[in-house]
Write a structure and sequence with these properties.
Elements lengths: L12 H30 L16 H12 L8 H26 L9 H32 L9 H12 L8 H25 L7 E2 L2 E2 L1 H30 L19 H12 L8 H29 L5
Antiparallel strand pairs: 1-2
Helix pairs in contact: 1-3, 1-9, 3-4, 4-6, 6-7, 7-9
């Protein structure tokens, strides 16, 4: 008889359901941080208390200002397309990732290359989910940045208006920098998370009988999100600025509009007008969001996955 351990095959619907649940719950909790991050990314003026001409000067100043001008509901602007985006993205990303990882286990050459396999599978899963959910990301971004003077009144209205005014290509503005960011970001998140998952199993308060506790999962998810976001952040800023092109009329009262036509012009114009640090505008709320979001996404995913496996009596 062979001593080779038998790999457990998890039905495809389990990572799909767990990914969807994880995305929806995390989005609802973290939407306010996303609103602030996007507002910061799209502001040309410095994010500084010393800059009197800047609408947003810091997180502590931006929070009460948004509430005063737009109400608490402003922190959930674009929440409907954001939830649709999170559900679609979570289902596809985790579904594709787990399917590819399980397939890779059938290839002997990949047995001792877990980190590389996890990065590649995460890279492809992130790109696939991004391409299929991108129009919702465009509408979500534009709903977040418009003021009290509404240009789009709903998700469907936004999608239809984009096609009418910009053609179907408008649904894919900023796709190139998004894929350049999301591919490495997703690959790094999965690779770092699973690396830490293996390493933290033996830490007393983080691991429990070969698996991570909730605290351990939160730590691994938070570190993976924080690290991956720093590395890929300029691409994230560029995609948001490209997504806004053609929609500048909605930012009246938010300061100077940023104009660009491609990834290279976006990066070069940002550095030219706002210096090198301009590429990292909104980094602090983004890192805070990335740490919290990743911690929650992986925790909700792992717990939902575990509950479903127990429910269907599937060994984990």
């Amino acid at each position: 008889m062979s001593d080779k351990p038998v790999e457990t095959h998890v039905p495809n619907f389990i990572p799909i359901v767990a990914g969807g649940v994880s995305g929806v719950l995390t989005r609802f909790i973290c939407q306010p941080l996303d609103v602030i991050k996007i507002r910061f990314q799209l502001q040309v003026e410095p994010i500084s208390k010393r800059s009197m001409g800047s609408k947003y000067q810091s997180m502590s100043q931006a929070l009460p200002l948004i509430i005063k001008e737009e109400g608490v509901k402003a922190f959930w602007k674009g929440h409907v397309p954001a939830q649709m985006l999170s559900l679609t993205y979570g289902v596809i990303q985790f579904g594709v990732y787990e399917s590819m990882v399980q397939k890779s286990r059938e290839i002997p050459q990949f047995a001792d290359k877990k980190g590389k396999v996890e990065f590649v599978c995460g890279f492809i899963a992130g790109c696939t989910a991004t391409i299929l959910s991108f129009p919702l990301d465009i509408v979500r971004t534009r709903l977040v940045v418009q003021g009290n003077e509404k240009v789009y009144v709903s998700t469907m209205n936004g999608l239809k208006t984009i096609v009418k005014e910009e053609g179907f290509r408008g649904w894919w503005k900023g796709l190139t920098p998004t894929l350049l960011q999301i591919g490495p970001l997703s690959g790094l998140q999965f690779a770092i998370f699973h690396f830490l998952k293996r390493k933290l199993n033996d830490v007393e308060w983080l691991g429990d009988k070969g698996s991570l506790t909730v605290s351990g999962t939160m730590v691994a998810g938070s570190v993976s999100g924080f690290t991956a976001k720093i590395i890929t952040y300029p691409m994230d800023l560029s995609r948001k600025r490209l997504q806004l092109q053609g929609f500048q009329r909605a930012r009246i009262g938010f300061g100077k509009n940023f104009l660009c036509s491609s990834l290279t012009t976006c990066l070069s114009e940002t550095v030219k007008e706002e210096k090198l640090l301009g590429l990292f505008k909104g980094l602090m709320p983004s890192l805070l969001k990335a740490s919290i979001v990743n911690a929650l996404i992986f925790t909700f995913y792992e717990k939902t996955h575990s509950i479903l496996c127990d429910l269907y009596e599937i060994p984990k």
